[in-house]
Design goal:
By secondary structure, this protein is an alpha/beta fold. The protein is built from 7 helices and 11 strands. It starts with a strand and ends in a 9-residue tail after the last strand. The relative contact order is 0.11. The C terminus is likely disordered.
Length: 253
């Protein structure tokens, strides 16, 4: 089959349901043109990332759900950023068509064969997985998954997408981070807020479960080398990324 499903179908179904609901909310609840345009562009980009991370295509001319979703056919504004004389009516028409395309993908999930994740492949790939530790910034996580998959040709391990099989979260970490993975990539995003005792203002910080899993990765993988990106600039959130493993970052910072 030229198109295969990389993500857990149940997880993807939930993501698509959420996207469809958000699209309908934009259609029914936003009247201001600038707000509608901005909301549509953000929603559309996130859907593109979800579909890109969830399916793989093989073959020069193969087109998957992402390509079908992005098709210019029937759209008023195929390239919204450079469109002139934008109207709410035409944006709504495009939004409605994109919602229909998501509904088609959602209804056809059972058609696609699934590509086993690196955590599900035993044998020769055991111990070579790349584990992603993340917070609630879905967009940044999807971008990281795409980057790792392109760079290594392996689907990364994401805890929530791995089958529970009756295991607790700690047991899943022990199995997939401690045994199935050689590397861990830690994505620190400002999903929580906290302060020091002498500090009067709240500051963004990573969620505490992410910090716990970072420590677990350091212990399980035997050491840590980390590089950092600026987290926030000009009020916009940017993820801080670190990697935990013996020498994965080559000692650079």
């Amino acid at each position: 089959m030229a198109v295969r499903l990389k993500s857990d179908p149940e997880t993807l179904a939930v993501q698509l349901d959420e996207a469809i609901t958000q699209g309908r909310n934009l259609l029914n609840g936003v009247e201001d043109l600038s707000v509608l345009k901005s909301g549509y562009a953000s929603w559309d980009k996130r859907n593109e990332q979800i579909l890109g991370a969830s399916f793989e295509t093989k073959g020069f001319l193969a087109a998957g759900p992402k390509e079908d979703y992005l098709s210019f056919v029937g759209l008023k504004y195929p390239l919204l950023d450079i469109a002139e004389e934008v109207t709410s009516e035409n944006i709504s028409a495009d939004l409605e068509k994109k919602v229909e395309r998501l509904q088609t993908v959602r209804s056809n999930l059972d058609v696609y064969e699934r590509t086993p994740s690196s955590g599900e492949q035993k044998a020769d790939q055991k111990g070579e997985g790349i584990f992603i530790i993340h917070g609630r910034d879905v967009e940044s996580r999807l971008e990281l998954e795409n980057l790792i998959h392109r760079a290594t040709d392996h689907a990364p391990l994401v805890l929530q997408e791995l089958a529970n099989q009756g295991a607790t979260i700690i047991e899943k970490l022990e199995e997939h981070l401690g045994k199935s993975s050689r590397f861990a990539v830690v994505l620190l995003t400002g999903d929580d807020a906290g302060l020091l005792g002498e500090d009067g203002g709240l500051n963004k910080r990573a969620r505490q479960n992410v910090i716990l899993e970072l420590g677990f990765a350091m212990a399980a993988l035997g050491g840590v080398k980390a590089w950092r990106q600026q987290r926030w600039s000009g009020g916009r959130r940017r993820p801080r990324v670190g990697c935990a493993s013996p020498g994965i970052c080559g000692g650079s910072r």
